[in-house]
Amino acid sequence: MSAVIGWIKEHLLLTIYFGVSTILILIVVLYLLLELPNKGNSNEDTIEQLISENEKVMDTDIVNEDEQKVLEKNEGKIVIELKGAIVHPGIYEVKSGDRVSDAITQAGGFLENADDRTINQALLVTDQMMIYIPEKGEEVIEESYTDVPTTEENKRKININQAEQAELIELHGIGQAKAQAIIDYREENGVFKSLEDIKNVSGIGDIIFENIKDSIMVD
């Protein structure tokens, strides 16, 4: 009887041992099956992230190269406006170092009735310059071009219906005599209804108007 009990105990222990071992093996196998795919996905995500970041860097380099090309293309270019007695008035793009004569040639040259006596054709052009070519017999001022850059101060417009002499003489080509003529005209005929009405003032013609029209206002 004792031999039977001993045999049962011996085999029961073996059964328990093999059962526990089997369970542990199954746990390890399940762990590996669950973890390995996740690690694989993690590695794939890391690779994709690196590729994405590399593409972003390449795109940034391409954008910077394009911007540099645009800057290099625009470097040294100047935009001016030609008006008056010229074959093709308009806005032109010229090169740095060009002179007024080069710009006039680019615009087709003078008209037959052009008066070039007040035009300094040897003058170097500057960005935002306006060149006005008067006709023969037309009232002219000392210079028929302006190259004053646009600033916040220059944007302040003078109300020709209210301005006093001290303000009016700030306008290009307007001296004390013309400023007083503007005031006299205003007092005799009433307020200016449009900017062009200032050309009705004695001594103010198309050339002066072209030079001051962007600096004046009416209300």
UniProtKB/TrEMBL annotation:
| Presence of keyword Transferase | no
InterPro entries, per database record: Competence_ComEA_HhH, Endo/Exo/Phosphatase_dom_1, Hlx-hairpin-Hlx_DNA-bd_motif, RuvA_2-like, Soluble_ligand-bd
Gene3D superfamilies membership = AF1531-like domain (1.10.150.280)
Q: Which Pfam families match?
A: HHH_3, SLBB
Q: Print the keywords alphabetically.
A: Membrane, Transmembrane, Transmembrane helix
Q: Which residues are in the Helix-hairpin-helix DNA-binding motif class domain?
A: 166-185, 196-215
Write out the transmembrane intervals. 12-34
Under SMART domains, the record lists:
HhH1
Taken from the UniProt entry, a GO cellular component term is:
type II protein secretion system complex
Q: Name one GO molecular function term.
A: DNA binding
GO biological process: one example:
DNA repair
Q: What is this protein called?
A: Helix-hairpin-helix DNA-binding motif class 1 domain-containing protein
Please give the organism: Marinilactibacillus psychrotolerans
